Fold each of these.
Amino acid sequence: MSLFGRKFPTPIVRPLAPFIAAASIVWLTVNKIENSAQSLPPYDSDPRNPKALLNKQLKEHH
Amino acid sequence: MTKIIHIYNPLEQFEIVKFIALEGPLFGYIQIGLTNIGFYLLLASLFIILLHLLYNKEGVLGLSNTLMLCMESLFGFVLQLVKNQVGPSGQPYFPAIYSLFLFILLLNLVGLIPYSFCATAHFAFTLGLSSTIVLGVTILGLKLHGFHFFSLFVPAGTPLALVPLLTLIEAVSYVARSVSLGIRLAANMLAGHILLHLFSTFSWKFITGSFLGLLLAPLPLLFITLLYGLEIGVAFIQAFVFVLLTCSYIQDAIKLHSD
């Protein structure tokens, strides 16, 4: 395998494919939970929530 | 007369601070930012990559033979660990385990520099890492053995009557691995940093509080130095334990019952 212009005799991507898949699953799951939690009370109006202002505007709009 | 002693919150050092934040109503609501934890993770990754790209070019960094010897010793140490724990079939996983060891070790050691930030003391980071490892090992086991992988939940030689109960216990303990692996690392680092912070604050107040405190100053300073040495040891041990358990989980997935 070639990386950074050097050739390595060790296979890297093939043995690590299960771990890459696992990392993708964990990332997607955490991202989904994070997005859901950002728009749920009481966190929707928490000042630490980056979406607090957007949530407030959406509530006022409705 | 009452004397007010002001002590900073020992948990203040673990606060996540945004260095750069870009957010706006683009693609729904996009948030791109760099926090202190992200910065230290990037720093550690870049440092490891650069060190390994340049370590055999003595003229580039002016690295001494001692540092090269240290790096080669670490390489040999992790290689031996993988050989002993996983066996010859685990050799393809060596690059990942070596990178993981150096990454955790460097983050642990960087966290010990005063006024820096310890990324491995954050449960969000360590739990993310540990659940990725356990899920990855499960996918690996399923890829290698198919549904026969679930025989891992039935220990060899179990009487038939006990199989349902033991399967349940083994399944729970298997899932708990993803939590315990991450919590072990974060809790150790968190406890060490809080302890150092508390003792440093108390020592400073003790030394500056009275003349007797100033005379006895070497005692708390000696204690903090010893504690700091212990924390450096803990940084190495926790990185070692993390990769040792990762190797053990990979071995379980490859060999199932090790027979």
Note: The beta strands of chain A are 2-3, 6-7.
Amino acid sequence: MQRVSSVRAMSQALILAVLVAVSFVGPTQAALQIDITQGNVDPMPLAVTDFIGSGTQDSTIGADIAKVISADLERSGLFRPLAKASFIEKVADVNVQPRFGDWRVINAQALVTGQSKLEADGRLKVEFRLWDVYSESQVTGLQFFTTPDNWRRVSHIIADAIYTRLTGEGGYFDTRVVYVAESGPKNRRVKRLAIMDQDGHNPRMLTNGADLVLTPRFSPSNQEITYLSYYGNRPRVYLLDIETGQQEVVGDFPGMTFAPRFSPDGNKIAMSLQRGGNSDIYEMDLRSRVTQRLTNTAAIDTAPSYAPDGKQITFESDRGGSQQIYVMQADGSNPKRISYGDGRYATPIWSPRGDLIAFTKMYKGRFLIGVMRPDGSGERILTEGYHNEGPTWSPNGRVLTFFRETRGEQGGPSLWSVDVTGYNERPVYTPTFGSDPAWSPLLR
Amino acid sequence: MRIGLIVSFCLHVVILLAAYVALPSVDPFPAVAEKVLPVELVTIDEFTNLKRTPTPEAEPEPVVEPEPEEEPAPEPVPAPEPPAPAIEPEAAPPAPSAPEPEPEPEPVVEEKKPEPKVEPKPKPVKKKPVKKAKAKKAFDPSSLAALLDKQPDDKVAKKPARSQTVAPAAAAGSNSEMTVSEIDAFKVQMRRCWSVPAGAPEAGRLVVSLKVYLNIDGSLARPTQIVNKGSLLSGDRYLRAATESALRAIDQCQPFQMPPAKYRSWQELDLRFDPGEMLGR
């Protein structure tokens, strides 16, 4: 009996000892901790192979699709499509895993393969796969059916899918840009409303040039544009449905209306109404046609732009003595100045992402385009020059398009784009001079 | 009494078990991060290649400095030096015959047999500047030659330099911790490979923590682990893209150039990719 209890006591003591010992054994030796805070902002090298086609026509379309995707990704400044001549593997079947080693050799971090095929019913079937070369896995893959003449749009949609998967943010390639096409001599410019794909393809005119048009703005929710047109020497805000061509005056105000912009849901328009040297901001509900006055000062309040949540509006005003940027609640209450730098600030535009407000700044006779946070902090200038104006955000809030005017008799405005980081500034091709660009939302 | 003992024992076991399970996952206090930073002491001679010239030169310098222009010719004189070591033994006996140049040998003092070496020098020098023999001799071979003439300099200077610098380096090496400059070298490798998720909103919050296991040749021993997997499951597209960019950077960068002697300290790395500082947010 005594022996049993002593054995029990011993075993208990042993267990206790083991537990105590074990509890003091910490996790394995701590690994070396290193903070990596510096990287590069070089574009990511990736390979886009020609889309495989079954017939000669299919493969021509396949090569064109690959070209459009490459061009889209390259223009974003975040990717560097590798030259096809450097490809070692010739992808023959999109359903077979590529030889990743061959792609690592040429330093491709991602690989795009795909195929296009004309179906018996006349539709074009396009599918693609995006591979991560280092983890040797497919990260995304989609297929589309469309009419053959729609191949360019499908290419943009694929480029958007790749961009979204690799950067985490929404794409902006399947979008259009509306702008004012200018032609004729400098003192007698004909200004027409024009629209094109974001890469400059498929340009077409929306108005005939008989009336002066200015400041077109895209609806964030549908294919509608609001703009300013001089009809009978009186500037009025108009609304144009791109698909039907239907045009109408927004509201019937006694004074002149200008600087219109849609609310994020596309149901309202905020604009300026000028009466006797003083302009204030009004909002009009497009469905009920009810107007509401948002500012009421003796100063010039103009260029309203909604926050993406629709709860606030940023605008420019000279109520403090000089032209500056303000933010107020959507009902006009609690206006607060946010720009405090040197120079004058104009045309604030809230980013669709909500994190920044873009503006045009006039300082020492130069026009700069910059961004700041909605509280006015973190001001950064993205581009500057003799005359830069009219920034417009891409739907993902990553890129700004603006117009830049050159001096001289032969000079004129042309469209440019710049990344929100200030890198990657490049021209946007238009057949004529172009100004006042406005970016559409992603097409649906 | 017995029941009390059992209850007490059980409670202790429970507490110990709980401690064993819970404690390792408790985040350490931030203050613990303070570590001893091993520092490499590097003497400047390694980089400048300048020979240390001992004191005596001080006096002659002001007087002699203008003259050296005529004497670039004699400079080649040190050239015979290289063969000198071979001749040293034979040359040694005449040493007493030329005792005057004694001050000059000092530059070479660190060497074990300085005197013999010096003798060849004085001889040729003597012939030309007979009048100011002492001052010139004192200057030429040591300071000027030391400063301008690379060949002999290398031979003479390198040895002492090495013996001086090796000591601290070896001391650092005996410590198995990576030094600051070795960690910096690793960071430079990562910088080349890591494409920062630029332009994402609030990029400062896109911090990715990875655990990397390395072989002694710097290649990956095991697949890299994502430490903050939990936040990744939230479905944040930006964070997913940022995590993938960090993983790609590691895949692309390996094998890393690491000091094999300190393998124990870097076989496991906790890497924290933080784009905030770079993107200013």
Note: Chain A has two domains: 12-167, 176-439.
